[in-house]
Amino acid sequence: MDQPADNKLTIEGIALGRRLFYDKILSGNQTQSCASCHKQELAFTDGLRFSTGIDNIAGNRNSMSLVNLGYNRDLFWNGRAKTLEKQALEPVPNPIEMHLSWPDAVARLQADGSYPGLFKKAFGTETIDSILVAKALSQFMRTIVSGNSKFHKYLRNEVQFTQAEINGYLLFRNELKGDCQHCHELGSKLLTDNHFLDITQRFHNNGLDSIYPTYLGLAEVTQDPNDNGKFKSPTLINIALTAPYMHDGRFNTLQEVIEHYDHGVKVSPTLDFFMTKNYPDLQAGDRRELGLTPQEKADLLAFLLTLTDSTVITNPAFSSPF
Ligand code: HEC
Ligand code: HEC
């Protein structure tokens, strides 16, 4: 994992970041921490369709899992932050999240009995600022690495797959059927393509909508209509724990997701090439029909269930220090 030259992991920095991640001091009315929307037992998601901030205002995006983010090149569904250090500056002042200005947050930490000493240990100074808070949070998040699912163990020859899991794995890789691995890439074992250098390989329109009324995805960042409806490919590690699914949480179950890919993919100008490459005759407004059998759908689900890494949700190093 690459670490920024000015924010290498240290024991003290990670410990401080973990504490800040779980501390409600960083929200306006002290009712919410990062962990309110990123719960360890749900692989750091919140189980809600739309996350709700301290003022009970729901946003329009589904909370994201935080595993293996140190390998990612873009953060957020639309990729508007390129480093964890930049990302971590957003939730505190965000009016529909923790809703506390940075000057107020820093003043609270500075007046606290323990934080100045903890910043001194981590960064050599008792003078706290938002940049150091973001650095500590980023160090903690970089430690949340997940590679111990049944799938990972299978690749390491530590466990056997059932026949259904093998069939599902093959479907996931089969270019004529699921072809899931084009975006939920397997080689890196990260189940996302967000580590690739080429940005066109990191954002995709997977056919949820034929028009994009509210939330444009990558186009919000690039201002390019060719990027309408393109989103970061989320990792599928721990996918059984992170319902509901997609940027707007529109699907409640993995079965619904599989039905989407089977016959719900809507053709539109920015639909990903890999969604239609075997279907040259599809027109705008059409839906792709993959034609998976009930058995194939069950096998695909069996494979997706092998992606749960229970060590992430039980590791005490990632839990609340309070
Ligand atoms: C009110 C709920 C809420 C709170 C509080 C919250 N988050 Fe999030 N988080 C979200 C949502 C929703 C998204 C997706 C937002 C988007 O894409 O616009 C997200 C996205 C992220 C991502 C991007 C993950 C990825 O795969 O790109 C990171 C990292 C993250 N949050 C870390 C944090 C940290 C650190 C804190 C505390 C400082 C925090 N979050 C507080 C709801 C929340
Ligand atoms: C062309 C790239 C691409 C292909 C191929 C693809 N996906 Fe996706 N997948 C995405 C993107 C992008 C998203 C997020 C879309 C959004 O939220 O708007 C996503 C989301 C998902 C989610 C929800 C993840 C979450 O955290 O909410 C699941 C589950 C999923 N895909 C499974 C699959 C399966 C199974 C296949 C094969 C049948 C597949 N995908 C094929 C790009 C792809």
What is the share of helical residues? 25-40%
CATH topology name of the largest domain: Cytochrome Bc1 Complex, Chain D, domain 2
Compute the average pLDDT. Answer: 96
> Can you tell me the CATH architecture of the largest domain?
Orthogonal Bundle
Q: Termini separation (Å)?
A: 28 Å
Order of strands across the main sheet: 1-2
Order of helices and strands: HHHHHHHHEHEHHHH
CATH C-level class of the largest domain is: Mainly Alpha
Number of strands: 2
How many discrete structural domains?
2
Bound molecules: heme C
How would you name the CATH homologous superfamily of the largest domain?
A: Cytochrome c-like domain
Structural class: mainly alpha
Write the layout of secondary structure elements.
Layout: H1 11-22, H2 34-37, H3 84-87, H4 102-111, H5 115-123, H6 130-142, H7 150-155, H8 163-173, E1 203-204, H9 219-222, E2 231-232, H10 254-264, H11 273-276, H12 294-305, H13 310-314
Antiparallel strand pairs: 1-2
Helix pairs in contact: 1-5, 1-6, 8-12, 10-12
One heme C binds next to α2 and α6.
What features would you describe in this structure?
The protein is an all-alpha fold and 322 residues long. The protein folds into 2 domains: 11-145, Cytochrome Bc1 Complex, Chain D, domain 2 (Orthogonal Bundle), CATH 1.10.760.10; 150-306, Cytochrome Bc1 Complex, Chain D, domain 2. It is built from 13 helices and 2 strands, in the order H-H-H-H-H-H-H-H-E-H-E-H-H-H-H. A two-stranded antiparallel sheet has the order 1-2. Helix 8 (163-173) packs across helix 12. The model has no long low-confidence stretch (mean pLDDT 96). Bound molecules: heme C (HEC) (2 copies).
